[in-house]
Amino acid sequence: MRNIIAIALGTAALLAAGSARAQTPGPRSGERADIVFATHNGIRTFTPANDGRGVYLQDNRKNWYFASFYTRCQNIDFSFGIGFRTFGGSPNLSRGDSIYAGHEQCRIADLVRSGPPPEKPKKARRARS
Question: Domain locations in the chain?
Fold first, then answer.
């Protein structure tokens, strides 16, 4: 009888752990997120989106995020570095904060978890004559 109760409790614990794992969002879930300690060297790299309406950000844990802007950010494609201005001086980057590309301020409309940026198409090589 004790074995049956132990097996039942073990099965219930495994089912609870499995459902908790299913509810935990994945890295490509597209859910809203904050990047912790972004203003304290928390961003590893960035890649602008093709249309200038957003930027892919990678934190120091190698998680990718996509920050979309309210309007098109003109200078983000040509920037070697970016700066951040957070609301209230918080070290975390979140929705409503700003990214500076050159002298342009780009306000973040939404910040979500994402996968890495899409690969750029390779240019065709010119034939040597």
Answer: 38-114
**Strand extents, DSSP E, 30-78:** 43-48, 54-59, 64-69
Segment 88-113 shows an average pLDDT of 91
Please state, in angstroms and rounded to a whole number, the distance separating the CA atoms of residues 17 and 62: 26
Report percent pLDDT > 70 for the chain: 77
CA distance 7 to 26: 30
Q: Which helix (H) or strand (E) holds 107?
A: strand 104-114
The answer to whether the pTM exceeds 0.85 is no
**Residues 42, 25: Cα–Cα separation, whole Å:** 21
Task: State whether residue 94 is helix, strand or coil.
Answer: coil
Separation of alpha carbons 97 and 15, rounded Å? 40
